[in-house]
Write a structure and sequence with these properties.
Order of helices and strands: HHHHHHHHHHH
Strand content: under 5%
Radius of gyration: 22 Å
Length: 339
């Protein structure tokens, strides 16, 4: 699980760098007009060029400097793991995953988690400038606060999950996101400073949900590492499709006009920031509870032989001396490397 925490932290750190750069560019190259307009195009142009340039540079460095293991080394690692584990357990096929109820519930949970994470990042700037009528620099420093709290949330997931378990930790993240949704709905336009609290809650909560959903996906795969890439790919595909549909529907129903007296767009973005993340988080929590019920039911009926050899649901310290679980964890990371 520590690898998933690191991955999420690095992602959020990159987001923090982008928003800090955006803040600077709006001050340096943006127009003096409010709100955002065509006069700010140079700031966004420079931001796009810098982000693309940095991304391409690091991608090139990765391909040039990171050595990929050869087929012989991979076979040697597999043989070493097989010697440690004894006879390699039977692997679940792709067809077998489609016959597994937990595969679908985990996918639904991950889908709603991604909606709760991604939609606020897309529509928070519109909420700030339209619903609260804040200055254009707010699209940098409020999301910056959200991502900083996301990094903080990623650090507390490990001790919290060891104490309360992964599913209860996920539910704690859901509670934070739902609380922020109510905050966004009732935030007063005249006093926008408390909005920092709402962005802090949704940042920490969404980070906890994302890390726990990835960790529970790894638990689902367990020792079935041969088809682990299929599971991660399926979750990622469902995530991309669902988020695309959500954004398309939001844009389709967006009001077209504003008047000096009434601006339905302002209220519309308030509804989006309050209803969609909170609703998605609650549906993710329901999926998690259904997943917990199925696991409890299957365990109560008969013991699962998979759990005898390093349970995929077992809470294990990252420095565990259980050799079989170390091999499983390493294999799972190789399977998920491209997702």
């Amino acid at each position: 699980k520590q690898w998933y925490q690191r991955r999420v932290r690095v992602t959020f750190f990159c987001g923090i760098a982008v928003y800090v750069l955006m803040w600077y560019l709006l001050h340096a190259y943006g127009s003096n007009m409010e709100p955002l307009g065509p006069g700010d195009d140079r700031a966004f142009e420079y931001l796009s060029l810098i982000v693309i340039g940095v991304g391409l540079s690091f991608s090139l460095l990765f391909h040039l400097l990171v050595r990929e293991a050869s087929d012989e080394e991979l076979r040697s690692q597999e043989a070493e793991g097989a010697n440690l584990l004894g006879e390699k357990p039977a692997q679940r096929t792709i067809r077998g995953w489609f016959q597994n109820k937990k595969f679908y519930l985990n996918g639904v949970m991950y889908m709603f988690t991604r909606i709760a994470v991604n939609v606020p990042q897309v529509y928070l700037p519109f909420y700030l400038t339209s619903s609260l009528s804040l200055k254009k620099e707010s699209i940098a420093y409020y999301p910056l606060m959200m991502l900083i709290c996301s990094v903080i949330g990623s650090f507390i997931t490990r001790p919290l999950s060891k104490y309360a378990g992964k599913m209860m930790t996920y539910v704690c993240g859901v509670a934070l996101v739902v609380g922020s949704s109510f905050w966004f709905q009732f935030q007063e336009k005249a006093n926008p400073c408390p909005t920092y609290g709402a962005t802090a809650l949704i940042g920490a909560g969404s980070s906890i949900m994302l890390i726990m959903s990835l960790s529970m996906t790894a638990d689902l795969i367990g020792i079935h590492t041969d088809t682990g890439a299929f599971v991660y790919g399926s979750m990622s595909l469902l995530d991309k499709i669902s988020n695309g549909i959500a954004v398309a529907l939001i844009q389709h129903f967006q009001p077209d006009h504003c008047t000096p007296v009434d601006c339905p767009t302002a209220q519309y973005y308030r509804y989006i920031m309050s209803a969609l993340p909170g609703g998605a988080a609650l549906l993710g929590a329901l999926s998690t509870l259904a997943l917990a019920f199925i696991r409890w039911k299957s365990r109560s009926q008969q013991p699962d032989p998979v759990h005898i050899q390093g349970s995929p649901d077992e809470e294990i310290d990252d420095n565990s001396v259980v050799v079989s679980n170390e091999y499983i964890s390493e294999s799972g990371r190789r399977s998920a490397g491209g997702v």
